[in-house]
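Tutorial, part two.
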Amino acid sequence: MFRAMVTTLLLLFAFAPAYGQMKYENIKFYVHSTKQPETVRLYRLSLKDGSHRYTTSKTEVDYLQKSLKRKAQIVPFDAYVYEKQVPGTVRLYRILFSGKDETHLQMMTAFEPEMLLHKNAGRKIHTMKAYVFPHTFKKTNAPRSVNTKDIVPMYSFYGGGHNQFYTTSEVEKKQLLKIYDIAMAAKHLEEKTRQQEMAAKIKVRRQVVAARYRAIRKREPTAVGFKGTPIHVGNVKWAVVDVKNKGKLLKSTNQFIDTETTKGKFIWVEVQVENESNSPLTMTAPILIDEKSRRFTNKTAIFHIPEDKSFFILKTLNPAVPFNGVLIYEVPEDALGLTLLVGDMNILSSNEGVIDLGL
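Running the prediction step on this input gives:
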C-alpha cells in the first residue's frame, strides 16, 4: 500500500506541468476500495501523452500496454466495481471522444442525465460491465446486504482536452489540489509581472509622447492615450478604433475615381468621437504629427474608404451620439512615432490631447 502511494506521487510530480492544470470538479460516484464479492478491479492507466484511461477489461489493459503509440502504464488505484447490478448501484458509463488516430477516453459518469447529454451531442457511450454507487450515496441509507466499510468517493479532476483524472485517494486529492494551487499562484504571479512590465512600458511611452507634444506646443497635453484607450479632452471623448499603414496605394471604391499613389505612405485612422456636453459641437479633423514634429492634415478621400465606413468630415456633433469616422493621411516614408492631436472642439480653448498610434 505504501509503495503504491509513493509510486503514484512520483508520477504526479513527474507530470507536474500537466497536473498543474488539473482542476477539482466533484465526487462522481462511490466504489469499494478493496476486493468484495462480485466486484472486479477498475484499472487506471497513464498513457504516453499524459492522459488516462479507465477500464475493467484486462484485455484492453494488455492492448494498451503493448501499444507503441500508447505505452500505457498501470497506475495504482484502489477501486473495485460490480460486474452485475446489486441493490443501491447504478450503471457506470465511459464517454469516448474521437481523437486523431483512434477513440480517446475522456470521462466516466454514473449520472444518467450527464450520459444522455453527451450522447445527444454525438459522443460515443461505452457502458462497460460496471456498476457503482451514485454520487448521492450515503452509508446510512445503504442496503444491509452491502458492506459499506470500504466504500470511498471517486474524486474527479479535469485538465482540459481528453485529460480527465480520477482518484479514490485522499492523499492524491490533496496533492493535486496543492499542485493546482501552486500552478495558479505561479500563473497569477506571471500575469502580475506581465502587467507590471506592460504598465512600465506604457509609462515610458506616455512620457515620450508627452515630451514630443511639449516640443511642438510648448505646454503640457490635456491627456495622453493609445489606440483602443479613450481619452477625455474637455467635454469630448476620443478613441482610436483602428490604424492601418495602407502603403503606397489607396484603392478607390468608386469605378469613376482612380486609385491614388504616393511616394510616401497612406495612414488610415478610424476614430470614435463623442460629445459629452449638453450642446452641439462642430467637429474638426485631428492633426497627425511624427517624431520629427512634422504635421499632417487629413486627405479628402471620401471615395477611398468602404461603403460601410463614414468619412471624418466637418459636421455638427450632437450630445451623447458617438460618431465613427475614417481619416486618411499622406505622410513621408520615413514618418515614425505617429500621434494624433485631438481637441475639445472649442475655438476659444487650448485643451488638446495626444493619442499614440503605435506606428
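The chain is about 25% helix and 35% strand. In part three we will examine how such features are distributed along the chain.
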